[in-house]
């Protein structure tokens, strides 16, 4: 009896792209993930996107997905995820894939190379108010106990966000 030999299928790859490499706390970034053959043809695959959940928070996905807590699983040729910056730092984002099949030829891919990128989140609130946030204040007849302003509300808010306090938890007018 002669053993059967099977030709080894081609390798595939993944690509990952972000809409911005740097953003402020409160802003969103769109991550686009794709599965491809080695020659760049679209491939259907089981993809897993992982991200630093301490810095980025899931907002939405344009495909049917599973997962949570820093991991999104999608079976498709491509998908996009929107993530919101919640804490300052450098967030790693990576994509892995298995079970790839090239569209058109139905050729199975024996392996899929992963890909990764990162985004930097600055410790500044999105849409920060850099204007003069002064209030007159009143200390008896002197009237000199006011808040000098000059963006101090934004600075305090940015520090609170960095400590994990979310915008909806803070009344900026009372800062």
UniProtKB/TrEMBL annotation:
Transmembrane segments: none annotated. Residues 125-149 have a biased composition (Low complexity). GO terms for molecular function: carbohydrate binding. Residues 123-149 are annotated as: Disordered. This is Cohesin domain-containing protein.
């Amino acid at each position: 009896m002669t053993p059967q030999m099977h030709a080894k299928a081609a390798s595939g790859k993944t690509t990952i792209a972000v809409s911005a490499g740097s953003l402020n706390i409160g802003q969103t970034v769109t991550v686009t993930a794709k599965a491809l053959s080695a020659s760049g043809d679209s491939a259907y695959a089981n993809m897993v996107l992982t991200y630093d959940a301490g810095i980025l928070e899931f907002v939405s996905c344009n495909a049917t997905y599973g997962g949570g807590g820093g991991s999104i699983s999608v079976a498709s040729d491509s998908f996009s995820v929107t993530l919101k910056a919640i804490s300052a730092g450098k967030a790693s984002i990576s994509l892995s894939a298995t079970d790839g099949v090239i569209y058109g030829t139905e050729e199975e891919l024996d392996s899929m190379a992963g890909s990764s990128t990162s985004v930097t989140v600055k410790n500044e609130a999105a849409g920060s108010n850099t204007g003069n946030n002064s209030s007159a204040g009143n200390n008896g007849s002197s009237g000199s106990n006011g808040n000098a302003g000059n963006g101090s509300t934004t600075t305090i808010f940015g520090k609170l966000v960095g400590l994990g306090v979310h915008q909806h938890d803070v009344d900026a007018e009372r800062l």
